[in-house]
Design a protein that fits this description.
- It is built from 16 helices and 13 strands.
- By secondary structure, it is an alpha/beta fold.
- The protein folds into 3 domains: about 45 residues, Transferase, Pyrimidine Nucleoside Phosphorylase, Chain C (Transferase, Pyrimidine Nucleoside Phosphorylase, Chain A, domain 3); about 240 residues, Nucleoside phosphorylase/phosphoribosyltransferase catalytic domain (Pyrimidine Nucleoside Phosphorylase, Chain A, domain 2, 3-Layer(aba) Sandwich); about 90 residues, Alpha-Beta Complex (Aldehyde Oxidoreductase, domain 3), CATH 3.90.1170.
- The chain has a 6-stranded mixed sheet, sandwiched between helices. A 4-stranded antiparallel sheet has the order 6-9-11-7, sandwiched between helices.
- Bound molecules: uracil (URA).
- Uracil binds next to α9.
Length: about 425
């Protein structure tokens, strides 16, 4: 086989066979295929696309390029969830304990945040003493003992994805639906769970900008899952404005605790209850989706889900201490509305970037984050606001943040017209 022939084949819109895709990935990882040829193939895929068979073959080749975690020693059905990333997305901190308290097994490998999106590991590590560096053995033991563990990736999972993602990043080929689908699914399949719920976000703060693209991506990922005999469900959800009120690591931990006390923001609560119900149902714990939802709501309101969060934090070495002292910043600044009306839009990207500039996120991988800082929205879409009322509160440790404060204020669009609140969930794609 010659790479140049395969590039030509894809360039001219023909289908690559399973063997050809396996050849490409194997030889790219072992460096026999140079970056310039791989870049050319990626661009051909970007323009010509890939059909279902090719996307599944690419996923399989990437999955088998490294280690695959064997969770068969964990008793019960293992459930996982993946979000395509967003601003204020602390779903794992709520959902993980919630479904674990229902009896599902949550063995979750998470990532760090980069740019305007936050990462679960950074939120967890904002808790004093909490370690995300679990050995595979400790990780599995903890899931067997308490039903949940969340760790950083230590095993050599999907090295092909790491290499390809870095190359896509510098060749303008990230936004290709088959490439995104196989990238996400190879990592999820390598993590070993039986049930995978995907949260595909759309809007300013997300990868997917339109419902059509999100639907196509979701369908491909669900199909890839079924070709690997995994139950995959995709939720298409709104990321045009931040999820919940809080954006920033410790602030989001506090919001997760509030949500598990039944006092969380409506959008975050709705998302966690709906996704959680699918995880519990698909995990075989309840016989119908309705019964799964009843169980999820019972665990949320009885305090058992919150107790599971505390147990999980304790098992991983975390100490929450006195929550009134949890956030340590030098100043808290209110950002006020300059006109009256209804909140029509809160630009998630702008809020995410402002939080990153405060130090809550990283511009480059090497940046060190400040876990205490961030932004708490006081108004959400549809809320009425009067001129001079507080729109958001900024938790700051930096000097001179005038520009950031303006960016937060400009992220809000206030309309004179009444704005209806809408569900955060647009569609659910199942097999
Ligand atoms: N997230 C991933 O893991 N991979 C992509 O290609 C895009 C988003």
């Amino acid at each position: 086989m010659r790479m140049v022939d395969l590039i030509e084949k894809k360039r001219d819109g023909h289908e690559l066979s399973n063997d050809e895709i396996a050849y490409i990935i194997e030889n790219y990882v072992n460096k026999s295929i140079p970056d310039y040829q791989m870049s050319s193939l990626l661009m051909a895929i970007y323009f010509q696309g890939m059909n279902h068979q090719e996307s599944a073959a690419l996923t399989n080749a990437m999955l088998n390029s490294g280690d695959v975690i064997d969770l068969s020693v964990v008793k019960g059905i293992k459930v996982d969830k993946h979000s395509t990333g967003g601003v204020g997305d602390k779903t794992t901190l709520v959902l993980g304990p919630l479904v674990a308290s229902c009896g599902a097994k949550v063995a979750k490998l998470s990532g760090r945040g980069l740019g305007h999106t936050g990462g679960t590991l950074d939120k967890l590590e904002s808790i004093e003493g909490l370690s995300i560096n679990l050995s595979i053995e400790d990780f599995i033991n903890q899931v067997n003992d308490i039903g949940i563990a969340v760790a950083g990736q230590t095993a050599n999972l999907t090295p092909a994805d790491k290499l390809l993602y870095a190359l896509r990043d510098v060749t303008a080929t990230v936004p290709s639906i088959p490439l995104i689908a196989s990238s996400i699914m190879s990592k999820k399949l390598a993590s070993g769970s039986d049930v995978i719920v995907l949260d595909v976000k759309i809007g300013d703060g997300a990868f997917m900008k339109t419902i059509e693209d999100a639907r196509e991506l979701s369908k491909i990922m669900v199909q890839i899952g079924s070709s690997f005999d995994k139950k995959v469900v995709a939720f298409i959800t709104d990321m045009s404005s931040p999820l919940g009120f809080a954006v920033g690591n410790k602030l989001e931990v506090l919001e997760a605790i509030n949500t598990l006390q039944g006092k969380g923001p409506a959008d975050l609560t709705e998302l966690c209850v709906e996704i959680g119900s699918y995880m519990v149902y698909s995990g075989g714990i309840a016989t119908t989706l309705e019964k799964a939802k009843e169980l999820v709501l019972e665990k949320l309101h009885s305090g058992e889900a919150l107790a599971k969060l505390y147990d999980f934090i304790k098992h991983q070495g975390g100490i929450l201490g006195d929550l009134s002292q949890f956030i340590d910043v030098k100043e808290i600044i209110e950002v006020k509305a300059e006109s009256s009306g209804y909140v029509e839009h809160i630009n998630a990207l702008a809020i995410g970037v402002a939080a990153m500039k405060l130090g809550a996120g990283r511009e480059t991988k090497e940046d060190v984050i400040d876990p205490n800082v961030g932004i708490v929205l006081e108004k959400k879409i549809g809320d009425q606001v009067k001129s001079g009322e507080v729109l958001a509160v900024v938790y700051n440790n930096k000097q001179n943040i005038k520009e950031i404060l303006s960016e937060v204020q400009e992220a809000f669009t206030i309309s004179k017209e009444h704005v209806a609140k809408q569900s955060i969930i647009f569609e659910i794609i199942t097999e």
